[in-house]
Write a structure and sequence with these properties.
Structural class of chain B: mainly alpha
Number of helices of chain A: 6
Distance between the termini of chain A: 19 Å
Number of helices of chain B: 14
Strand content of chain A: 15-25%
CATH architecture of chain A: 2-Layer Sandwich
Helix content of chain B: 55-70%
CATH topology of the domain at 126-377 in chain B: Ribonucleotide Reductase, subunit A
Oligomer: heterodimer
Order of helices and strands of chain B: HHHHHHHHHHHHHH
Radius of gyration of chain B: 26 Å
Distance between the termini of chain B: 86 Å
Largest interface: A-B, 24 and 40 residues
Order of helices and strands of chain A: EEHHEEEEHHEHHE
Radius of gyration of chain A: 15 Å
Number of domains of chain A: 1
CATH class of chain A: Alpha Beta
CATH topology of chain A: Nonspecific Lipid-transfer Protein, Chain A
CATH superfamily of chain A: SCP2 sterol-binding domain
Number of strands of chain B: 0
Chain lengths: 183, 396
């Protein structure tokens, strides 16, 4: 199991945490050995991993959108959200959205911590490929347990247009030793 | 001088037993004989000049050209957006006048009278084809192409229980049947759109390629898994309604916004209910392509309606068309050969088909709302007028 040292993750030292089931790998990108979910650093690790693998992104093609990721019951039980800006073949920006901030996201994926965790653990157990019932599309298509939120149908369509790239973006979490807060 | 039109002596005449269309050939000969003076004068002039050993070099004259206005590449390379920043190249006419292949922005005016007219170019209004996202979609389509032979992990395909394999193969048979209309429709209009709208023609060419790949991947999946199963009359009527739409905008609405919107839902459902990683990958790849086509359909309709001199009249025409089109499309999407396999895959077995139908009813309601939302986005409110049932016919 990928236990993350608090020396690498200073922001985690004060929290009770537990590693993702099946998370046995250590991220190479961005110098991060692991990260807590949800956190900006966790999404930055994914961004770093994506950017470190440009050849794969060039195969998949352009991604031009701002994707929101929301945990309905984040740290302390409060909603937590961040936005990842994708441009061309890279994730160029990751930022947390404080409550009241105007969203820049074209669309947002929102789910409970338990749903996100299940998905991440499935990806880790599958060594970078979730099982059949934990892909982003599987989770969002019926509208539950994960919801695709967008004000404009054309912006919602961006989620579909880039679906393979977004799936591989989260699949890279298998390379991070993800740690979850103990509930 | 010798007759420049005489055949060289070493060229043998065509073998008359070849199955040529005699009628078509006669028409072709007559047509070019009728315009003989037009093109033969050009040929004679060229022939004489070449015989004299003189050069024209008129093409080096930059009067009337946009010579020296160089396009600069952006981070992605040199896109149409980059070249279109130069107004002489990037300004699309509201009404196209050139019914030939002369490139927009070239020196073409001096040659206007000597150029042929292509009668097939009939879509002369920009707003009957344009959409503000077409340049982005074209670049994206090129960048996100994939290969149905190589990019799908076919080697991982495993046999499924018979009911699930048959359901998967029937769904793939349906998709093989419907996918090529989404290639045939843009192909039909591609050659009716003049060259001044080259960006739209380019995007339509990518759509044709996308649909060829979809037809290919579903045909291959069925044949690799068990075989193609049943074609359906209901599918065929829907496809005919699309292909025979009276205008490009109407057909694009029916194909891209409604039809492909529905197929996008089926692809999303297909990914969700896939029983193998191979099927997951197929549906995920396809839904990306389909979403581009849907996005074009939404903004093409919006452009058409926004530019209509009489918006109310244009809306009424579209409503009349949609009244028919929606019902014919519905014929396909109520066919047993589509609904039942999806329900079986949703539920996980033939024995649980009732449960699957309940799940499908949920997808139906979701799809209808997405369809109305896309119509709203285009400025085309179908909510009050549409006769598509908001709930699936089998929903309690």
């Amino acid at each position: 199991m990928g236990i993350v040292s608090s020396a690498v993750q200073p922001d985690m030292a004060e929290r009770d945490t537990q590693p993702a089931a099946g998370a046995a790998k250590t991220a190479d990108a961005g110098g991060a050995a692991g990260a807590q979910f949800p956190s900006v650093s966790w999404f930055r690790c994914l961004a770093d991993l994506m950017n470190a693998n440009r050849a794969r992104q060039e195969q998949l093609g352009y991604v031009d959108c701002v994707a929101g990721f929301r945990v309905l019951d984040g740290p302390g039980g409060a909603p937590w959200a961040c936005e990842v800006t994708f441009e061309e073949f890279e994730a160029i920006d990751v930022r947390e959205c404080a409550r009241g901030d105007a969203s820049r996201a074209n669309f947002t994926l929102e789910a409970t911590q338990a749903t996100w965790r299940e998905m991440i653990e499935s990806i880790a157990a599958g060594d970078g490929r979730p099982d059949l019932t934990h892909t982003l599309n599987y989770l969002t298509h019926p509208g539950t347990p994960m919801r695709l939120v967008a004000d404009d149908p054309l912006e919602a369509d961006l989620y579909f247009r880039y679906n393979q790239s977004l799936q591989e973006f989260v699949n890279a979490s298998a390379q991070i030793a993800t740690v979850f807060p103990i509930s | 001088m010798s007759n420049p039109l005489a055949l060289p002596v070493d060229v043998e005449p065509l073998i008359t037993s070849l199955p040529l269309s005699e009628e078509g050939l006669i028409h072709y000969e007559e047509q070019f004989s009728r315009h003989y003076q037009g093109w033969s004068e050009i040929l004679m002039e060229n022939h004489e000049r070449l015989q004299r050993g003189s050069y024209s070099l008129h093409w080096m004259n930059t009067d009337g050209a946009n010579w020296g206005k160089r396009a600069k590449p952006s981070s992605r390379g040199l896109t149409y957006t980059d070249t279109n920043r130069i107004p002489a190249y990037g300004t699309l006419p509201e009404h196209a006048e050139w019914r030939n292949f002369a490139p927009r922005g070239s020196v073409r005016e001096p040659y206007r009278e000597r150029m042929p007219v292509l009668d097939e170019y009939v879509v002369m209004e920009r707003d009957d084809v344009w959409a503000d996202n077409v340049l982005t979609l074209y670049e994206e389509a090129k960048a996100r192409q994939w290969n149905a032979t190589r990019d799908i992990p076919w080697g991982e395909l495993e046999p499924l229980p018979e009911d699930l394999e048959k359901a998967t193969c029937q769904l793939c048979t349906f998709l093989t049947e419907v996918e090529f209309v989404a290639g045939d429709f843009p192909a039909k209009w591609l050659y009716r759109i003049p060259q001044d709208f080259l960006e739209v023609k380019s995007f339509l060419a990518t759509q044709i390629m996308d649909e060829a790949r979809h037809q290919e991947v579903f045909r291959k999946r069925a044949i690799a898994g068990g075989g193609l199963l049943h074609a359906s009359p209901g599918f065929e009527w829907a496809l005919k309604a699309i292909l025979e739409a009276p205008t490009h905008t109407m057909g694009t609405f029916l194909l891209n916004l409604l039809g492909e919107g529905l197929v996008l839902s089926i692809f999303r459902s297909g990914e969700m209910i896939a029983k193998t990683f191979v099927d997951k990958e197929i549906f995920r790849r396809c839904l990306q392509d389909e979403a581009r086509h849907v996005s074009y359909g939404v903004l093409q309709l919006k452009t058409h309606l926004d530019a209509a001199p009489d918006r109310e009249a244009a809306l009424e025409q579209m409503h009349r068309f949609a009244d028919v089109g929606e019902m014919v499309i519905l014929t396909a999407f109520t066919e047993a050969a589509l609904v039942e396999p999806v329900a079986i895959l949703l539920a996980g077995s033939l024995g649980k088909i009732d449960q699957g139908m309940q799940g499908l009813a949920h997808v139906w309601t979701m799809f209808i709302e997405e369809y109305f939302a896309r119509c709203d986005r285009a400025g085309f409110d179908r909510r009050a007028r549409s006769r598509i049932p908001l709930s699936a016919p089998w929903a309690s």
